[in-house]
Amino acid sequence: MLSPAKMKYRKHFKGRVSGVASRGHQLSFGSYGLKAMEPARITAAQIEAARRAITRCMRRVGKVWIRIYPHLPVTQKPAEVRMGSGKGGVEYWACRVYPGTIMFEMDGVDAEVANRALALASAKLPVLTKIVTRGA
Fold first, then answer.
1. How far does CA 51 lie from the centroid of its chain?
2. Which carries the bigger pLDDT value, residue 50 or residue 60?
3. What is the pLDDT of residue 136?
4. Which residue among 6, 88, 92, 121 is buried most deeply as judged by most CB within 10 Å?
5. What is the end-to-end Cα distance of the chain in Å, rounded?
6. What does the alpha-carbon distance between residue 112 and residue 43 come to, in Å, rounded to a whole number?
7. In what order do the strands lie in the sheet with 102-107?
8. Helix 111-123 with 44-58: angle, nearest 10 deg
9. Contact between residue 118 and residue 102 where contact means Cβ atoms under 8 Å apart
10. Quick one: which H or E segment has residue 92?
11. DSSP string, 12-54
């Protein structure tokens, strides 16, 4: 799964996911894309599950670009631990996704296969999505 090799700080503040995407909101590489329609935190495991769904549906024909990266460490304290004694350890890596962000792009396949693959990937993600194409 995706995770950064090196971080300046080991643990981050939680923060909020609000507003709309100011960058990464247009297709840059492929002809078809999957766009987020609501804000969310997407984990590295969810990104990997969506990527696998896309590549399996495409039968490894064409090319897929992952436009998001999980660079946010999410911490959790163990179960049944008393309050205090600092912040928990890093449990998983996540990515903040804003409405309008293009998460996946693909090219080299026809429209029917692209729509089916992106619909399968959408089912793996915890956010409402929309399939976009380069002319529309």
1. 9
2. 50
3. 59
4. 121
5. 32
6. 28
7. 63-66, 102-107, 32-36, 129-133
8. 150
9. no
10. strand 89-97
11. -------S--SSS-S--S-SEEEEE-S-EEEEHHHHHHHHHHH
Residue-wise pLDDT tens digits, 15-41: 999 999 999 999 999 999 999 999 999
For 132, the enclosing helix (H) or strand (E) is strand 129-133
3-state DSSP helix/strand/coil % of the chain, to nearest 5: 20, 30, 50
List the domain boundaries for the chain.
Answer: 32-77+89-133
CA atoms of 63 and 38, how far apart (whole Å): 26
CA dihedral 93, 28, 100, 130 (to 10 degrees): -100
Displacement of CA 2 from its chain's centroid (Å):
10
71 contacts: CB under 8 Å, gap ≥ 6: 4, 93, 95
Span 80-89, pLDDT tens digits:
999 999 999 9
pLDDT exceeds cutoff 90 at 135? no
Name the superfamily (CATH) of residues 32-77+89-133.
Answer: Ribosomal protein L16/L10 (3.90.1170.10)
